[in-house]
Amino acid sequence: MLCLVAVALSFVGLATLLVKFAKADGDFTVTSRGPPKREEVEGKVVWITGASRGIGEILANQFAGLGAKVILSARNASELERVKSEIISNYPASSIEVLPLDLASGEESIKEAVKRAESLFSNAGVDFMVHNAAFERPKRKALDETEEGLRATMNINVLGTITLTSLLAPYMLERGRGHFVVMSSAAGKCPAPGQAIYSASKHALNGYFHSLRSELYDKGIKVTVVCPGPIETSKSSNVSSSAEGGLKEIGAKRLDAAANKKSAYSWNLLFGQKKSI
Ligand SMILES: NC(=O)c1ccc[n+]([C@@H]2O[C@H](COP(=O)([O-])OP(=O)(O)OC[C@H]3O[C@@H](n4cnc5c(N)ncnc54)[C@H](OP(=O)(O)O)[C@@H]3O)[C@@H](O)[C@H]2O)c1
Asked: What UniProt keywords apply to this chain's record, in alphabetical order (predicted)?
């Protein structure tokens, strides 16, 4: 009898796990997380790079919806203004600032941006730095990559991001708190055929930020490295989808689900119709 109960319980457990896995778009990380914790971001200053479209735009909306004060950065100022207006129409009470920034523009200009970000909201420096910007990801074989593509990818994804981090971290250290959230990629964990340079840049980011965490964890600074799989992100009218090539099916609709449902749980992610966002 006991044996039967144990087998039945195992089946129920397995079935529950499978349902959770399916609802989380095949992503066990999502299954282990509950809904967003409003109390952790409400009133906090969140600076997001790459906020003019795609994942950055959705993150900006979600942080604003949770009551954070949001700073939007990217190169395209008019797209940032569009994102700001849309957020304000979604959340009229939200505090949103636009801070145009080119991560490839060198230390002096990034330093200026950091100073501005630190002073945009009175008596509140940056609490969360969301490193989300990245150079476009054209599919190109490793040996076909151009010098120009190599430099642009490394300048934006790695050098600019690290420079921004090292210029902002001292402010956070002075306050004894801060959180770097790094939008890396599954391509930063495993081979990404056709995207060797992009993959190399994400591996570099992972190496830097995991090391940074080990240096700063006891000083109140947190580091979260996110490594998502492919996601379709054609939110802006004039920008094409940037889902990473190869594994486009599972996971491709995560952003859509997150935008519409405020979480990534949806049966439609796995079993829904194939359509562009
Ligand atoms: N989509 C996916 O399948 C996927 C999967 C895993 C990880 N990721 C990562 O998630 C992040 C966002 O991806 P996404 O698909 O949303 O990207 P996206 O749509 O291509 O957007 C990239 C963002 O980065 C900004 N950007 C580009 N060059 C910049 C520069 N020099 N200085 C400052 N900002 C710059 C762009 O704005 P401007 O052009 O206005 O500067 C844009 O806002 C990236 O780090 C990406 O590697 C994406």
From this structure: Signal
